[in-house]
Amino acid sequence: MMSQGYPDTNTSMPDPESFPDIRSGIPIGNAVLGGEWTWIQTGAGAADSPAGLDGTAGWLPAPVPGTVASALRAAGRWDDSAPPPLHLHDHWYRVRFAGRGRQVLRFNGLATVAEAWLNGKLVLGVQHMFAAHEVEVDLDGDNLLYLCFRALHPWLRKRHGAVRWKPRMIVPPTLRTVRTTLLGHMPGWCPPVHAVGPWRSVELLDPASDDILHGVRADMSAQMPEGHGVVSLRLHFPGAAPASGSFEATDGEGCRHPGTLSRIDRHTLSGTLRVERPKPWWPHTHGEPHLYRVDATVDGRAIECGRAGFRTVSLDGASASASSGPSRLSEPFALCINGERLFCRGACISSIDLPGLADTDEASRYWLTLARNGGMNMVRISGVTCYPGEAFYRVCDELGLLVWQDFMFANFDYGSIGPGVGLTDDFQREVTGWLTSTRAHPSVAVLCGGSEAEQQAAMLGTSRGEWKQPLFEELIPGLVAAHRPDVVYVSNSPTGGAWPFQPDSGVCHYYGVGAYERPLTDARLAQVRFASECLAFANVPGDRTLTEHGLLLPLHSPRWKATVPRDAGAPWDFEDVRDHYLRALYDVDPPRLRYEQPQRYLMLSRAVTAEVMTEVFSEWRRVGSGCSGGLIWQLQDLTPGAGWGIVDACGRPKSAWHALRQVWQPVQVLITDEGLNGLHLHVLNEMPQPRSLLLVLRCLRDGAMVVAEARHSLRLPARGSERIEASALLDRFFDFTYAYRFGPPTHDVVLATLLAGDSGEPLSQAVYLPDRRATALKAPGLRAQLEQVGDEWWLTVSAERFARWVHIEDVAYQASENWFHLAPGSSRRVRLVHERKGAAQAVTVPSGEIYAVNADHPLGYDG
């Protein structure tokens, strides 16, 4: 029975066992259900069936695929700052369409407690957002389909069951009993935007269609056993499959590799082809993401099946192939692609479109290009979010971004869930459906059972024997081995160690530097192996975003604080964390600075998160480090303000994004403070070509006078690195870190610049300051020159003395490079990119200000 106020629909529900098998793969032939969809909201349980809606007015057009939120947005009735409580109401969609005879309705995603009514008859009832559902139906010409999405919160009030722990961050805790996204249910960092509606497409599959491509789905995978490429392809047809066909894989230079397709059952063509000495797919930081286009021909019709890439994925050099099954977590955790060990860096992605959960090339490409341009080679989809659509993985393939994919299980006790409550089959359908629909993508490298389930069990006091759950240790890894053996599987994020969240074992969520306010030295002391989450800060956006959303002043207002993330139940928020490092590193009083000099407080707040992240990743990437990766929490904000994102909700990179971009380069110089051992310089080359390089080390007094200088030529092999002691580059003693304190400091800046050995082109720069205080350096004497070259604007910034964290704030343009250090007597030429194209750009000229931490006042410029 449903909860009070709901109709009893079980008596007329079709037997689930009568449903046809769910066809896997990517849709190739168009079968999207046509017609004009409309939507209406009613009270919970107000209508037992579509008949109860007779005479109801107020139906609105609705995009499908889409959500109720996207329908409200399209109607101009959605407010991001005050999302309505959609889970308190029922929501009905309807569409009229033509069709006759026995056909199949396929629902690729219904969120969440949903019913489908066709011509007045209930044909489907589901409680699963993440699985596709198919039902055979008889059509009578003119058909009317209703989809009802029942109010989730009243429905959940009737869900009970014994649990060993209840996580505090998810509201309500009964969400464990239904398969839906946790987005919108985590107060403190995610707005209460509820996922309701047909968020993925609805298809009508006609087995008798005259169009051979109608409803075809392509199920494709690529393997590289023993260095050879093998592409496997299955084409699934709603009706009878042709007797045979052909297909081919074509590389970027037009070289073709043929194969044949044969019918293996009534609905399926299958075949394999071989590619000798394939060009491997690499993450972009380590090579080229080579892809092969796969096309099939059936009954004289061409079918574009997608793209495939060849790569191997393993842990710490162990082989992972189709024959050996997926790699499992080992100690230490280190990911290898094509046999090469990687340092993975990137961010966790919360949602590309929180209200609509849209799967579009445009949205995916925008955000993922920001990730790639920021130097990332991996993105993670956490178990507290939602599975992205096909476009997301396709763009990751093209851009050379690895994907760490959690399954959508997080925090809860799933150990007591089994056949008795009807969710085990749902879990298996969900995981299998995702695995079979995404196995063509070489970007998918790590699959993870879920997020923080082991951590929650341990931290909330359960015994050690209850931390592991069969869902993550048996069911999911068994399905991964069967359907996606070419990836690494991790049971949970975090996992490993005496505690499942211990940084020095397995995979951790590292917030020692950050939420737990540990000193920067903890980044080494903790011996982090791989941080699948780390360094969450309340990152302040630029002035333009704050101004546009009325957040610039006052900084202590409730509206400002509402944008600052916090952990549930904690008496502090992440602005308090940032203020801790402001005080510790910059020697300022954050409350006083915020009241008396709010603009300087904002600037230093942006600078300190950039500096902390630079320091931590310099430590983790140094030569000899035991760390093999770190993923920032998170890529983007879900609402404007000082959120966790290193890109704000308007899509504008923040200071941390720019700083990480500089410390995540494939060819890089880094500096680490080794105490009484002085400074170590770490030169890295992750690319497949050797590099001849010139390293220039300079120490400056008063930010201008060179008091020590050295040059060092080196040649790094492909994937090579070298550690150089700064003291070895000089023929006399020099106290680089001012550790010995023999008299007053002789310098205040150390600059390491890495140049291309042949051209002298600057490749990377690292900075060390013996004194980090915000007032330690003299004013830089900034200069600026604005010029227009064709349709482009360029701003050249120069400095008389060393300039710390130079950044540009423009009223209409974004600086292509921002938040950088500037050596004395040097300049940086920066392209200014207009945010809008067309007429607005033609009449708008750049106008803004240039700042630096050690500048007394900003420098204005105007075109």
UniProtKB/TrEMBL annotation:
EC number: 3.2.1.25
Signal peptide span: none
Positions of the Beta-mannosidase-like galactose-binding domain: 54-200
Region (Disordered): 1-21
Keywords annotated in UniProt: Glycoprotein, Glycosidase, Hydrolase
One family name in Pfam for this protein: Glyco_hydro_2_N2
Protein name (record): beta-mannosidase
Organism (species): Cupriavidus oxalaticus
